[in-house]
Amino acid sequence: QSMDSTLHYIHNDSDLSTNSSFSPEEERKSKVQDVVPQALLDQYLSMTDPSRAQTVDTEIAKHCAYSLPGVALTLGRQNWHCLKDTYETLASDMQWKVRRTLAFSIHELAVILGDQLTAGDLVPVFNGFLKDLDEVRIGVLKHLHDFLKLLHVDKRREYLYQLQEFLVTDNSRNWRFRAELAEQLILLLDLYSAKDIYDYLRPIAFSLCADKVSSVRWISYKLVSEMVKKLFMASTPTFVVDLMNELVEKFCRCHKWSGRQTFVFICQTITEDDCLPMDQFA
């Protein structure tokens, strides 16, 4: 009885904003579900109300964003309509920390919602995060493979054209961003065809192999060696042959000693990881 009265008080105290395209009654019905007490959900949804940041907690929107995947899991994908507006409000919040929180969990939310809702409701938000501040972009980058593997092949291929944009950061000294990109590209090799790898991932990998920071280069050597392995196993042998020829031309015959050293390290990684049979390597 005490809990009921508390929830009744919370429900009455909630000052929820309404979408101008719906009447108050339609807005209320769009957020009705039967999994948790409705008053409790209403209170959670009210956390995006700007007045709450002034009267309750300045970081209340961030707390709301942090909890959203758990709330979505509890309600189930059939009740996503209750959370969709709140999610979009948080995704466009003025505070980058709120958007960053969502960026780090969007791949988990995609698993909860399934491919259809992800394509319709999460992909536009994901695309927005890709153009955001580095503090937000790192969230989607760290789980890039986890998110892209949930998309249909055609939709996944659309992101091939945008991967190169991760090489550009707000701060060029942010080498950990490029290191994370190299790590993710290794995982992405399993999601794309040999032609896509050669056309789109190869130029990025070669660029990372020439990075100014040693830690980035070492991860990139692993990336190139895995690329060699993947292309060697492809049905079209020309890709791996062209890749190896470019490695020789770009690094082995480089006029700088650092480029020639890069070639040696890539060869070392290829042999250590058995990416090529020894007769092919020779």
UniProtKB/TrEMBL annotation:
Q: Name one GO cellular component term.
A: cytoplasm
Keywords (A to Z) from UniProt: Repeat
Q: Which domain of life is it from?
A: Eukaryota
Q: Where do transmembrane segments lie in this chain?
A: none
Q: By its UniProt entry, which SUPFAM superfamilies does this protein fall under?
A: ARM repeat (SSF48371)
According to the record, the residues making up region (Disordered) are 11-32
In its UniProt record, a GO molecular function of this protein is: protein phosphatase regulator activity
Identify the PANTHER family for this entry: SERINE/THREONINE-PROTEIN PHOSPHATASE PP2A 65 KDA REGULATORY SUBUNIT, SERINE_THREONINE-PROTEIN PHOSPHATASE 4 REGULATORY SUBUNIT 1
Protein's recorded name = PP4R1 phosphatase
| Protein's organism | Hippolais icterina (icterine warbler)
Q: What is the lineage of its organism?
A: Eukaryota, Metazoa, Chordata, Craniata, Vertebrata
Q: Which gene encodes it?
A: Ppp4r1_1
